[in-house]
Amino acid sequence: MNRKLLAASSVACLMLSGAAFAADLTVGFSQIGSESGWRAAETTVTQQQAKERGIDLKFADAQQKQENQIKAVRGFIAQGVDAILIAPVVATGWDDVLAEAKDAEIPVILLDRQIDAPEDLYLTAVTSDQVYEGKVAGEWLVKDVGDKACKVVELQGTTGSSPAINRKKGFEDAIAGHANITIARSQTGDFTRTKGKEVMESFIKAENGGKDICAVYAHNDDMAVGAIQAIKEAGLKPGTDIKVVSIDAVPDIFLAMSEGEANATVELTPNMAGPAFDALDKFLADGTQPAKWIQTESKLFTQADDPKGVYESKKDLGY
Ligand code: GZL
């Protein structure tokens, strides 16, 4: 009996018996790396979800390199896993390896980032609406600054990644029509604190010691935390001299918020694996095709939302 049939029959029997997700499934997970607190939490949650469901998760950390992800996926195919999860570091260059997985009849599910590839090459993508995340961040700033002139500097995510492309677009859409708000400088900080700090230091140097900067928009909280460090080292007050708005809602941004050093963040759930395994469950049991996009929620948090309490509620969740 071929692997797919075997997996389907074991899932079907367990589902009939009302058991949780099939035990004895093997799933390969090609994770981008551990570039941010959010990424670390996504890894933790994925491993917890797999454990709860009796799934044998084969984990591969790509250190943010696509070639390592492609190598890992080829390894999973050679091992004959039952399914593959990929958090794709960039949006392009996946067609060939996904076609190989398809030929091997191994379903692929994308986590937290979209790709530019034919939809029949993957079962579904579990991601937030990243354009909307950028829009929510931009709309917060529009409301906060009113008619005041506001020069924004932008810390972009990893070049070529769907969140960097989409969060930039969403923010620009939100500030369009508000001529008083302009993006003066924009550069990638690769989603890391270190790079976020470095790039913010260069922005501060280029903008009159930071005195001409009204706000920093960071595509994730880790770069925002790095920027906060740079702003303080320049003798300025993050959160008041320079407003700080970002995305992810990791615990440390709420610590900064509770100190008045950050202003707003848009929450991104680290639990992409739960919906992914649910969709896989149904597909393996009876071939149910999920929607090509399973969207996760996005929620704005500001200093008005009890940041200390939110920090306490999030601090032990694996970030
Ligand atoms: C977005 C996700 C991003 C996070 C960053 O869905 O891919 O990658 O916002 C992480 O923290 O590096």
TrEMBL record:
Keyword tags: Signal
Periplasmic binding protein domain span: 28-272
Chief subcellular location: other
Keyword Signal: yes
Cellular location(s): Cell envelope
Signal peptide segment: 1-22
Residues in coiled coil: none
Family of the protein in this entry: Belongs to the bacterial solute-binding protein 2 family.
PANTHER family: D-ALLOSE-BINDING PERIPLASMIC PROTEIN-RELATED, GALACTOFURANOSE-BINDING PROTEIN YTFQ
Protein name: Galactofuranose ABC transporter, galactofuranose-binding protein YtfQ
Provenance organism: Paracoccus broussonetiae
